[in-house]
Amino acid sequence: xxxxKVNRETKETKINVSLNLDGSGxxxxxxxxxxxxxxxxxxxxxxxxxxDVNCDGDIHVDTHHSVEDxxxxxxxxxxxxxxxxxxxxxxxxxTMCMDDALVMCAIDLCGRAxxxxxxxxxxxxxxxxxxxxxxxxxxSFADNAKMNLHFxxxxxxxxxxxxxxxxxxxAKCIRDAVKINKDIKxxxxxxxxx
Length: 194
Description:
By secondary structure, the chain is of the alpha+beta class. It has a single domain, classed as Ribosomal Protein S5, domain 2. The chain has 4 helices and 10 strands. The strands form 3 sheets. Strands 1-2-4-3 form a 4-stranded mixed beta sheet, with helices on one face. Strands 5-6-10-7 form a 4-stranded mixed beta sheet, with helices on one face. The protein has a two-stranded antiparallel ribbon with strand order 8-9. The longest helix is centred in the middle third of the chain and has 19 residues, at about 65-80.
């Protein structure tokens, strides 16, 4: 099984993540940030990954450290679980609609970190989740997963819908990109290794 466990402790957060790429979308999430828990459950369900996340963070300050650091640990666990990436599809893109929101996501599991998004929110919070940390999560995840991750927000007014569409679109991309393709011999690269 392609799985990984990562623990990280700082003066701001203590995070434990367990991830199985070949799961069935089961999740146990506890970040103490309701909306973020909802998004991580969504990520697990729609990607097919089994995911356990526990985060004790300084949410008396705000949600920034907990969200960003969860992205770091989740990205590291994801990269570890991929191992040498032999036979994976590597690339994926998906356009997700959710009511007023329409979001395009594209990923490349290339071993190089890059993140780009045009997301911007007029609404400061979804529940207790500060919307401006959305970029921080995805950037931290992409950096530590060593992937290229791009979002294009095509339309949308409701911050909840836009952010959830981002998580779902990423989940669908992950599901497709990590699949083992029997037609791919070795790694899908001219360099010989991803």
